[in-house]
UniProtKB/TrEMBL annotation:
<feature type="binding site">
    <location>
        <position position="129"/>
    </location>
    <ligand>
        <name>pyridoxal 5'-phosphate</name>
    </ligand>
</feature>
<dbReference type="GO" id="GO:0097053">
    <property type="term" value="P:L-kynurenine catabolic process"/>
</dbReference>
<comment type="subunit">
    <text>Homodimer.</text>
</comment>
<feature type="modified residue" description="N6-(pyridoxal phosphate)lysine">
    <location>
        <position position="262"/>
    </location>
</feature>
<feature type="binding site">
    <location>
        <begin position="156"/>
        <end position="159"/>
    </location>
    <ligand>
        <name>pyridoxal 5'-phosphate</name>
    </ligand>
</feature>
<dbReference type="InterPro" id="IPR015424">
    <property type="entry name" value="PyrdxlP-dep_Trfase"/>
</dbReference>
<feature type="binding site">
    <location>
        <position position="290"/>
    </location>
    <ligand>
        <name>pyridoxal 5'-phosphate</name>
    </ligand>
</feature>
<comment type="pathway">
    <text>Amino-acid degradation; L-kynurenine degradation; L-alanine and anthranilate from L-kynurenine: step 1/1.</text>
</comment>
<keyword id="KW-0662">Pyridine nucleotide biosynthesis</keyword>
<comment type="pathway">
    <text>Cofactor biosynthesis; NAD(+) biosynthesis; quinolinate from L-kynurenine: step 2/3.</text>
</comment>
<dbReference type="InterPro" id="IPR015422">
    <property type="entry name" value="PyrdxlP-dep_Trfase_small"/>
</dbReference>
<feature type="binding site">
    <location>
        <position position="239"/>
    </location>
    <ligand>
        <name>pyridoxal 5'-phosphate</name>
    </ligand>
</feature>
<feature type="binding site">
    <location>
        <position position="318"/>
    </location>
    <ligand>
        <name>pyridoxal 5'-phosphate</name>
    </ligand>
</feature>
<dbReference type="InterPro" id="IPR010111">
    <property type="entry name" value="Kynureninase"/>
</dbReference>
<dbReference type="InterPro" id="IPR015421">
    <property type="entry name" value="PyrdxlP-dep_Trfase_major"/>
</dbReference>
<keyword id="KW-0378">Hydrolase</keyword>
<dbReference type="GO" id="GO:0030170">
    <property type="term" value="F:pyridoxal phosphate binding"/>
</dbReference>
Length: 452
């Protein structure tokens, strides 16, 4: 455990006004009842000691769905790699107890538990984007009568770029071959989506949780429909891994990709992950590299590729150890707590937040909630919609709350079960109340910052 003298605050000094010095009681709504409930929830929160393991920047951090915070555990693991490098040089690859040579495999085993996969179905490697390119090139060969690719209009841009490029690389025409599940209101209709999984579709690719609205898609029925229609199904788990359980193996998803730097807090640009269902393990990777070798054969340096069994074969070059160590360090926290308890707290956090936002919506009609209310239809963050979302995000940050902004009108608020307190959310609501009441956002320019 972290000692009480551990530096909890001030790791990053943002120079914000700070929530503590911010008066919220001027002609405002009375948040006392909600605050009392939040304090009771905090007092009985079984995960509350986890917060002590994280470096918490000044103010309230609600951007863990973009970059999760640093834990002492991840820090120690990264420092451990540096120490080993310092003292052992090349022997770091083999020195016990954590040889670098097998660190990706040990991480894959832990990650598999979080997503309902067999260890042999997961590899920790590459980036979300590079893994998607790799799996598409390996598994999807368009054929006559099944050339169409189904994606949704709300998917994260990198996925769309990769899929368009893949279609073009396979001799197709993205304009003609892509079928879009459209959205009128920022959400996807599951009925629409299932209906569009028609006979002429060969590949479908969705996110488990949509990055803007936080809508969660039901993977089991989508995968069942994909199976019955002979469609290859891929899923991007970037916004759900570490926040909720998955059942990729049992649901029979064909493949999946994700990053580890959001809810999992493995560090900026941490090594990413991929899943390939075991029924596809006979297919060789499209872009092999020596790090995908059977580990007992890798240093034979043979000209023919003796690949690892399963997803490990999709590794390519030497793992980026400094970017892998953070994951190795933080994973045991998730495994010890168990992903079901994490989801339980995450839902309780977003419940409280949405309840408060509904109360604010009654006071400020321009404010709307862009996230589905039903627990099974939402992920770990809440999207707030407002015509001045860009300026509101800046005003929140100025007053000590870190959200992010996604164009055109979304402020995302992501409480993370391991380090967000219920009371933080009530403070956020109070700050937001005053920003809206006094139109404090007008002090900020419209438009996003380079990184929003
Ligand atoms: C759904 C989704 N996919 C992919 C990415 C990013 O891909 P990469 O990790 O390759 O930068 C993000 C966020 O950056 C994301 O939200
Ligand atoms: N990788 C990043 C690097 C810098 C800033 C943000 C990101 C994000 O991950 C954004 C996130 N995927 C999103 O849902 O918008």
């Amino acid at each position: 455990m972290v000692s009480s003298s551990h530096p909890r605050v001030g790791v990053l000094e943002w120079g914000v006004k700070g929530v503590a010095g911010f008066r919220t009681d001027v002609n405002g709504k009375d948040w006392q009842a909600l605050r009392e409930r939040a304090l009771t929830l905090d007092a009985s929160d079984p995960l509350r000691s986890m917060r002590d393991r994280f470096y918490l920047p000044q103010g309230i951090y609600l951007d863990g769905n973009s970059l999760g915070l640093l834990s002492v555990d991840a820090e120690q693991a990264v420092l451990g790699v540096l120490e080993t490098w310092k003292h052992s040089g090349i022997d770091g690859w083999s020195s016990e107890p954590d040889p670098w040579f097998s660190m990706a495999e040990s991480c894959a085993k832990g990650v598999a538990t979080l997503i309902g996969a067999k260890p042999s179905e997961v590899a920790v490697t590459g980036s979300t984007t590079s893994n998607l390119h790799h799996l598409l090139a390996t598994l999807h060969k368009p054929r006559a009568g099944k050339r169409r690719v189904l994606i949704d209009a709300l998917n994260f841009p990198t996925d769309v770029y990769a899929i368009k490029a893949h279609v073009a690389n396979q001799g197709g025409d993205p304009e003609r071959d892509l079928v879009w599940v459209d959205s009128r209101d920022g959400h996807l209709s599951i009925d629409d989506l299932l209906t569009q999984m028609r006979d002429d579709v060969g590949l479908a690719f969705f996110s488990s949780v949509l990055y803007q609205s936080g809508q969660r898609l039901p993977i089991a029925p989508i995968a069942a429909r994909a199976r019955s229609q002979g469609i290859l199904l891929g899923v991007d788990l970037s916004h759900s891994i570490g926040a909720m359980p998955h059942a990729l193996h049992d649901d029979q998803v064909d493949f999946a990709v994700w990053c580890h730097y959001k809810y999992l807090s493995a560090g900026p640009g941490a090594v990413a992950g991929l899943f390939i269902h075991e029924r596809h393990h006979a297919v060789p990777p499209a872009f092999p590299g020596w790090w995908g070798s059977d580990k007992t054969r890798q240093f034979d340096m043979a000209p023919s590729f003796a690949r690892a069994k399963g997803a490990g074969a999709f590794q390519q070059g030497t793992p980026h150890m400094l970017s892998l160590a953070g994951l190795a360090g933080v994973l045991p926290l998730f495994l010890d707590i168990g992903i079901d308890r994490i989801r339980e707290k995450s839902l309780a956090l977003t419940d409280l937040l949405m309840e408060g936002l509904e109360q604010l919506g009654a006071l400020y009609p321009e404010l709307q909630i862009g996230t589905p209310r039903a627990a099974e239809a939402r992920g770990g963050h809440v999207a707030l919609l407002h015509p001045h979302a860009d300026r509101i995000a800046k005003a929140l940050k100025e007053h000590g709350v870190t959200p992010d902004f996604r164009p055109p009108n979304i402020v995302r608020l992501a409480p993370v079960a391991l380090y967000t307190q219920f009371a933080d959310l009530v403070t956020t609501l109070e700050v937001l109340d005053r920003i809206l009441r006094e139109r404090l956002y007008e002090a900020h320019d419209a438009g996003r910052n380079v990184i929003a």
